[in-house]
Write a structure and sequence with these properties.
By secondary structure, the protein is mainly β. It has strands at 2-3, 6-7, 19-23, 27-32, 40-44, 49-53, 58-63, 67-71, 74-78. A hairpin with a 4-residue loop joins β5 (40-44) and β6 (49-53).
Length: 79
C-alpha cells in the first residue's frame, strides 16, 4: 500500500503459536502440535496468495519453488 508517496507495511501480524515453519530444498515443513481448524495461507513477498494448506497434527510437507514466503505470520525461505 502506498500512502502519499510513502510505502507502508503489514502491521500487527500475530504468528500462529502452534505452527513451526522451516524452509528446505524445494519444500517447506510445517509442524504443528495440533490440527488447525482453518487452512494456513502461503503468501509470496508481494502479498499474493499462493496456496492454502490444511495442517494436521505433526509435520506437513509443502512443495514450493525456491523463494521467500510468509506462512502463518512467519517468514520461510525455500531453496
Amino acid at each position: 500500500m502506498v500512502n502519499k508517496g510513502l510505502s507502508t507495511g503489514i502491521e500487527k501480524v500475530k504468528p500462529l503459536s502452534t505452527l513451526q515453519v522451516q524452509g528446505g530444498v524445494g519444500q517447506m515443513i510445517l509442524t504443528s502440535s495440533v490440527s488447525l481448524k482453518e487452512p494456513v495461507v502461503v503468501y509470496n513477498v508481494s502479498g499474493k496468495v499462493l496456496k492454502q494448506v490444511t495442517i494436521l497434527e505433526g509435520k506437513t510437507m509443502v512443495s514450493m519453488m525456491p523463494g521467500l514466503y510468509i506462512v502463518g505470520g512467519q517468514k520461510c525461505l525455500v531453496r
